[in-house]
Amino acid sequence: MAPPEPDIRTGAPDASAGALDASSGGPDSTGGPDTSAGGPDASTEKPDPRTASAPTSTRRAATPLQRLAGVWRRPALRWPRRIASALVLVLLLPPLAAGIALRVNYGGDPAAGTYTRHRDALWMGHAWVDGRKKDADVRALAARLRTTGVRDLYVHAGPLEHDGTLPASAYPKARWLIGAIHRELPGVRVQAWLGDELATEGPVGLRLERAATRAAVVRSAGQVLDAGFAGAHFDLEPLHSGDAGYLSLLGDLRRVTRVHGALLSVAAHQIDPLPSLHSLWGTVTGHPKWWSQEFFGQVARRVDQIAVMSYDTALPLESLYGGYVAQQTSLALEVTPAKTDLLMGMPFYYEDNMDHHGSAETVAAAVRGARLGLSRTDRTRENFGVAAYVDFAAREKDWTAYERGWVR
């Protein structure tokens, strides 16, 4: 049996809630004065509401929440109550406003002609270069791709070692794959997808601040280009906005790819949906998810292709996700040079967790969002496409949504 696919975004190997006890004892419905010993019928006596109290055996004790509510209603806490209410509004209104803005951003119709420019891409798993795939698999892939706009295949050939090196044993069937793709799909380019975890949020990983590590990464790129790949596609995560080591690496890589007449391509983080959100988020969580738009532009100017990983957004609704992709597309178009291919990522996989709600992050929403952003920002741009992540998790409905919404 083949081993499970790795998490090829980083190259690493591939909550329950407790139930509340809702039971509670009610008052004793049979409690009342004892009339068994004779005397007047107590049931006919009307208690004095000023002095009567329920029998102690039938009185329900106040819960901690009820006691807290009683304290909170005291007149002396009037101003604290008002301040607390104001704070709740401050916390809730921005997310509400952002949600409304994303929903509005998903409205309208994409402009005519905003379909594939035949510059799309597909991220592909390691099985294509380690011997698990055969000629029949290539023929099936070719049959799938011939009627699409896919021009580039990012085939996982790593991961890189943490020192930046790459063992040739990681991609033993690369030449076979490249030859088979050229035979079945003339004009489609096969790029080596190289990734690794960065030591930006922990003690383990590749360190871009080290010149020796960057030099090793450059040698690894030359190595895969010598093996026949048409380009080197890098996905290094988590990559913080403003990373000077990364920009330096891209400059060195560009010189190598130009010597080989090859492509330099990168997978990019999403752009700040609000100015400086990456800084705030990083301070609060230690993980600055987004790049600034300025840094995105700096990266885009140093590469031939930049593919936005526009998925894993945690958004709960398809309309919000589509509006978010439209916004990301516009932000990326504003700072990406016309000569650089800009690709917007599509989720060709299904998960349901805190980062990715499969019912919301659909291919249809991603495609429509990309078309809306393209329509509003640079409708006639030719160097634009979408990139599907990832081949081995794709379902037939994902391919259908891509073809109906984008290829036509």
Search tags:
alpha/beta; 8 strands; 408 residues; 8-stranded parallel barrel; globular; 11 helices
Distance between the termini: 38 Å
Summed up, the helix count is 11
Radius of gyration: 30 Å
Order of helices and strands: HHEHEHEHEHEHHEHEHEH
**Unreliable stretches covering 5 or more consecutive residues:** 8-58
The helix content, as a percent range, equals 25-40%
Main sheet specs: 8 strands, parallel, barrel
Look at the helices and sheets and give the structural class: alpha/beta
> How do the strands line up in the largest sheet?
1-2-3-4-5-6-7-8
The residue-averaged pLDDT reads 85
Name the overall outline: globular
Report the sheet-strand fraction: 5-15%
Count of β-strands: 8
